[in-house]
């Protein structure tokens, strides 16, 4: 079962700094969580993200999971080293701390399999999973589908997601009836004036116009 785990504001530790770990870290950077990378060798990309203050790095030889106790608010441990035994040791340590755990290429001890992800932007991601049966085929499907998705999900669609997120929160405050809120959100999705603003990339004007429509309904 695919899930979208809420990691916002939580601590995630990735053990490993190679190519596979770099790909997982890049996805985590979209989740608004605190990412810590621990490894004896760390990729240039991860070091660059550290310089940009997007994550923290600790260079050390990892032999067990004792160091995980030093992290507060830890929710997820991702073991992405070259050693299957070490990955399993880290998973066991994470479980004792009450964390979700993931070991690369080892679905038997992981709480979830990691899907192949198409990130259209920070808010819209499409996950493709084979339930851990074949990561290679999941990547193959991603490569086939990504051009199709990018062609059919436009910049206007992505801006509409941002607009919907903002207006949904405001509608919850001002419209008590669920059906009324749903209709309001559906209406702004097809409103021609709002579409015109989004076509020009003017999200601020689209939001202002939508707010005026909401005020009319909340009177």
UniProtKB/TrEMBL annotation:
The record's listing under InterPro entries reads: Met8-like, NAD(P)-bd_dom_sf, Sirohaem_synt_dimer_dom_sf, Sirohaem_synthase_central, Sirohaem_synthase_N
Answer whether the UniProt record assigns the keyword Oxidoreductase to this protein: yes
Which of UniProt's keywords are assigned here?
Answer: NAD, Oxidoreductase, Porphyrin biosynthesis
Domain Siroheme synthase central as annotated: residue spans: 124-146
Q: Write the Enzyme Commission number(s) for this entry.
A: 1.3.1.76
Q: Which Gene3D superfamilies match?
A: NAD(P)-binding Rossmann-like Domain, Sirohaem synthase, dimerisation domain, Siroheme synthase, domain 2
Catalysed reaction per UniProt?
precorrin-2 + NAD(+) = sirohydrochlorin + NADH + 2 H(+)
Supply the NCBIfam families for this chain. cysG_Nterm
User: Which protein is depicted?
Assistant: precorrin-2 dehydrogenase
Instruction: Tell me the organism's taxonomic lineage.
Output: Bacteria, Pseudomonadati, Nitrospinota/Tectimicrobiota group, Nitrospinota, Nitrospinia
